[in-house]
């Protein structure tokens, strides 16, 4: 068993992040010790840095998009052995509450998300339950492996929207999650319409095969969607930006019995106009929230997508980061989002 100290990225208070030595983790029963190889920087990490995440406590080792190599296993009979390359499912459910007993562990009432409710993996070593580790193929690079978790969110959103071949799908927000949702949509034979005010992010989506891109808002956006769908409007809308305006407009953008999936978390209160609610009723529109992604099946399916080259994870990586550069890069990602899409820390 390795002992001693390790380097970790710690947000000590909003706006204050440091790299310093902390104690090495000791795996509990049922856990494995992982030598971290790559960690994706997520919007949640930036919210924690800004001090806008509603449920985090400080100080906190951030990082939940984690890939690495198992060093030791404290779980007799585990099929995962030292040397195995794995990705981490970062959501630890209680297994006892009502959502857990119904199989919706992502909605656990006592969910512990690493890097948020407990210390995460932006460190040299990390311990985690073996049941929430998934082996990855040797052909997958470490930087790609760190993006399996956000790809899982994208896959889950598309699956819950019931998207099929030939469907029109509006995706609002062309950040990493929106880009991956668009790629998964294309893999299903559907047609994404990607909406974002940042033209730089739309250009990145164009590079992965998204043909319909729009930076317009309000009624101009409604007219654009009506034009490209020849008046039919979209079969589904997946909101991945947290835009208050889109949430008030969404029922105007989908067709009768369309579906709206809300992934992005709004930053302030949202007032839904009466006309939007009437449209939801008269068109029998379904509106559904989506939290994280759900378990082993989703992780296995997205690994298959990557193995069969159905998505391009490298296309969204704009920054490869060394651990000592994390404080500077976190500040940069917060202040200049136009110039960055996805950062990955490599160890």
What does this protein structure show overall?
It is a single chain. The chain has helices spanning 43-50, 98-101, 142-145, 148-160, 176-187, 199-206, 218-228, 244-249, 274-282, 295-307, 326-335; strands at 5-13, 16-23, 31-41, 60-61, 65-74, 85-88, 91-92, 112-113, 125-129, 133-135, 168-172, 191-195, 212-214, 234-239, 254-262, 286-289, 319-321, 343-346. With 347 residues, it is an alpha/beta fold. The protein has 2 domains: 5-147 and 317-346, Quinone Oxidoreductase, Chain A, domain 1; 155-289, 3-Layer(aba) Sandwich (Rossmann fold). Strands 3, 5, 6, 9, 10, 17 and 18 form a 7-stranded mixed sheet that branches. It has a 6-stranded parallel sheet with strand order 13-12-11-14-15-16, sandwiched between helices.
Notable traits:
7-stranded mixed beta sheet, 28% helix, 347 residues, 6-stranded parallel beta sheet, 11 helices, Rossmann fold, Quinone Oxidoreductase, Chain A, domain 1
Topology at a glance:
Blueprint: E1 5-13, E2 16-23, E3 31-41, H1 43-50, E4 60-61, E5 65-74, E6 85-88, E7 91-92, H2 98-101, E8 112-113, E9 125-129, E10 133-135, H3 142-145, H4 148-160, E11 168-172, H5 176-187, E12 191-195, H6 199-206, E13 212-214, H7 218-228, E14 234-239, H8 244-249, E15 254-262, H9 274-282, E16 286-289, H10 295-307, E17 319-321, H11 326-335, E18 343-346
Helix pairs in contact: 4-5, 4-10
């Amino acid at each position: 068993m390795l002992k001693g100290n390790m380097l970790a990225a710690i947000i000590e208070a909003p706006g204050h992040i440091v790299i310093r030595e902390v104690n090495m983790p000791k795996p509990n029963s049922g856990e494995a010790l992982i030598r971290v190889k790559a960690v994706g920087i997520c919007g949640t990490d930036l919210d924690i840095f800004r001090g806008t995440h509603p449920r985090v406590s400080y100080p906190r080792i951030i990082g939940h998009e984690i890939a690495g190599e198992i060093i030791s296993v404290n779980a007799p009979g585990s099929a995962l052995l030292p040397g195995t390359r794995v990705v981490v499912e970062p959501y630890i459910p209680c297994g006892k509450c009502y959502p857990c007993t119904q199989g919706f562990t992502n909605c656990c009432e006592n969910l512990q998300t690493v890097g948020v409710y407990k210390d995460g993996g932006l460190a040299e070593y990390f311990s985690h339950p073996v049941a929430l580790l998934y082996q990855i193929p040797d052909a997958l690079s470490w930087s790609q492996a760190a993006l399996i978790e956000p790809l899982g969110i994208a896959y889950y959103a598309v699956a819950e929207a019931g998207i099929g071949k030939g469907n029109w799908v509006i995706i609002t927000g062309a950040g990493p999650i929106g880009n991956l949702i668009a790629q998964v949509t294309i893999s299903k034979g559907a047609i994404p319409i990607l909406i974002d005010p940042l033209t730089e992010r739309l250009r990145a989506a164009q590079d992965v095969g998204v043909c319909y891109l729009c930076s317009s808002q309000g009624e101009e956006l409604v007219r654009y969607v009506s034009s490209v769908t020849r008046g039919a409007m979209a079969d589904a809308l997946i909101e991945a930006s947290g835009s208050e305006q889109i949430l008030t407009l969404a029922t105007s953008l989908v067709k009768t019995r369309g579906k709206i999936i809300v992934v992005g978390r709004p930053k302030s209160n949202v007032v839904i106009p009466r006309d939007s609610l009437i449209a939801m009723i008269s068109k029998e529109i379904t509106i559904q929230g989506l939290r994280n992604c759900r378990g082993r099946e989703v992780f296995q399916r997205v690994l298959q997508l990557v193995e069969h080259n159905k998505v391009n994870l490298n296309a969204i990586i704009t920054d490869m980061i060394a651990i000592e550069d994390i404080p500077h890069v976190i500040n940069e990602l917060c202040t200049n989002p136009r110039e960055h899409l996805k950062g990955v820390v490599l160890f």
